[in-house]
Specification:
Distance between the termini: 35 Å
Organism: Micromonospora craterilacus
Number of domains: 2
Low-confidence stretches: none
Protein name: Cell division protein FtsK
Order of helices and strands: EHHEHEHEE
Keywords: Cell cycle, Cell division
Radius of gyration: 17 Å
Length: 135
């Protein structure tokens, strides 16, 4: 995108099951003394300014928080989509104490920190899967 008009392009790193890489992220490079966690955190903090974005999927909020380095780094995630995460647990991670959210089938919660927006979304629908009665 934008390669021909002089504007910087955007690159997206898409990773499914990111929590499965916890062992690799914890390893330290003997030459640089940096771990994969260090590189992940640098990507989240500095990547967007250079047109590099991570679209990652973690199977659990706890693993995501651990990979980010705890709640002190939660602001490095500008946007997230939560599926099947209890509202109280998600609120604690985000530092939002009044988050009223209950997980439902075929629904997710979009949290956009740039726009200060929290919205219920339908991220996908399966063919032949009936509606849960709500539009």
């Amino acid at each position: 995108a934008g390669a021909g008009n002089g504007s910087p392009g955007r690159n997206y790193l898409v990773v499914f099951g990111m929590d499965a890489a916890a062992g690799l992220l914890a390893e330290t490079d003997p030459a640089t003394f940096r771990s994969g966690h260090d590189d992940l955190r640098a990507l989240l903090r500095q990547g967007p300014g250079h047109g590099v974005h991570l679209l990652g999927w973690w199977r659990g909020l706890r693993r995501l928080a651990d990979d980010l380095g705890g709640t002190q780094n939660r602001d490095d995630v500008a946007c997230l989509v939560a599926l099947n995460v209890p509202g109280t647990e998600l609120g604690l991670h985000l530092g939002v104490h009044d988050l009223a959210y209950t997980p439902r089938a075929d629904r997710a919660l979009l949290v956009d920190r740039h726009d200060q927006r929290v919205r219920l979304i339908v991220p996908f629908a399966r063919d032949g899967h009936g509606s849960d009665g709500q539009e």
